[in-house]
Amino acid sequence: PAEVPLLLALGRFHENKAFDVLLKAMVYLPSYWLWLVGGGPQESVLREQVARLGLEERVRFAGWRDEVEPLFAAADVLVCPSRSEPLGNVVLEAWVQQVPVVAAAAKGLRQLIDDGVNGLLAPVGDASALAARITEVTSERSKTLAAAGWESYCASFSQAAVVKRYLDFFKSVAP
To answer: Can you spell out the DSSP letters for 23-54?
Structure first.
């Protein structure tokens, strides 16, 4: 429904991605809906968890998608609950689409996200803390987080920034 906040989570349905934690967090978020986008070995387990928690009305499995821009355009918040995440490409995608991010404080995500500035972090595996951080994304804070995420992307991950770092490196090692 148009009047409810929509959470988006994307990735391989694997234990490391901690979508089970996000589903537990949904119990604390009765006015939120969630789109889970992806596929993988944990899909049947996640579907069973949705049924067990009584979330069938508010959680949708959208399958694997190559075209994610429309999903980001519809979403209010990207949630990345990973237990382990070396980088967090979905965070970068959210920043490009200017969607605010709430994530678990896994190592790679902590390196990307400056908590409270370009995203919000919750302790890894803590469903109630993840839910609490999600509720902090009000409409005004959403704009601020999204803008800071975009700035972070441009400064460190855009094509221009990456090419500059490569050129600087080559200059530093050239004889």
So the answer is: HHHHHT-TT-EEEEEEESTTHHHHHHHHHHHT
| Six-digit token string for 152 | 């972070």
- Sign of the Cα torsion 114, 134, 148, 146 reads positive
What contacts 24+ positions apart, CB below 8 Å, involve 43-52?
Answer: 43/13, 45/20, 46/13, 46/19, 46/20, 49/20, 49/23, 50/23
Rounded CA separation 106/119 (Å): 13
Which residue has tokens 């920043």? 95
CA distance 156 to 162: 7
29-79 per-position pLDDT tens digit? 999 999 999 999 999 999 999 999 999 999 999 999 999 999 999 999 999
Q: Cα–Cα distance between 160 and 82 in angstroms, integer?
A: 29
Q: pTM to 2 decimals?
A: 0.93
Q: In what order do the strands lie in the sheet with 101-104?
A: 59-63, 33-39, 6-12, 77-80, 101-104, 120-122
